[in-house]
Specification:
It is built from 7 helices and 9 strands. By secondary structure, it is of the alpha+beta class. Helix 2 runs parallel beside helix 5.
Length: about 210
């Protein structure tokens, strides 16, 4: 059931153009186990028996060659008890944003509600390293999305649906931000007070 859920997520992130080739990875935490996509297997050929099962320390319980980004997934699950799903993708607009700013300010309601008041950009670190995991966790904080400098994005959720929608909203918000910057005009932002109200409204009611 969990492995099938992961396959469904990989199919959707591929269809939505959030990844190309074998880039990106998906994991689901279930109790004391984490199920994660393997390294180097194209999404269109991925099968349930390719999904790797590890413990919370990253020790392989079944399967082989887990995603090279496993250390980052482990760091996020260790830091966030509410997170059950982690999705890492390489979308165009969010990655472009990572090259020029250290965060996307609170611009639109759906982003503020689902992702957090602002979307932080994590400091660069080489892929697959513990440092990348540490930087990701720090920049993610209590939000549901973080942009990785010169790399891509990570979104998280209590469910696969929440994490997937977070990926789509993050990419849409990045596109809006870049289009607004092109205008050269002053960009309207949602106030800190209103951002807090919107985020709390999502966490206390919309998420239920």
């Amino acid at each position: 059931m969990i492995k099938e859920e992961i396959l469904n997520i990989t199919k959707k992130i591929n269809e939505f153009g959030l990844v190309k080739g074998t880039w990106g990875n998906v994991s689901i935490k279930n109790g004391e186990k984490i199920y994660i996509t393997p390294s180097g297997v194209p999404y269109d050929t991925l099968k349930e028996n390719d999904i790797v099962e590890v413990d919370l320390e990253g020790n392989i319980l079944s399967g082989k060659n887990p995603s090279s980004e496993l250390p980052t997934h482990l760091k996020i699950y260790a830091a966030r008890a509410d997170v059950k799903v982690v999705i890492h993708t390489h979308p165009i607009y969010s990655t472009a944003v990572s090259l020029i700013v250290d965060h996307i300010p609170p611009l639109v309601e759906d982003s503020v509600m689902l992702l957090g008041s602002k979307i932080n950009v994590a400091e660069y670190a080489l892929p697959g390293t513990k440092r990348l995991g540490e930087n990701s966790v720090y920049a993610l904080g209590s939000n549901n999305a973080v942009i990785l400098k010169n790399h891509g994005i990570i979104t998280v959720g209590e469910t696969s649906s929440e994490a997937l929608v977070a990926s789509l909203i993050c990419e849409k918000t990045a596109q809006i931000f870049l289009e607004a910057l092109k205008s050269g005009l002053k960009i309207s932002e949602i106030s800190s007070e209103d951002s807090s109200i919107l985020r709390e409204k999502y966490l206390s009611s919309y998420r239920q």
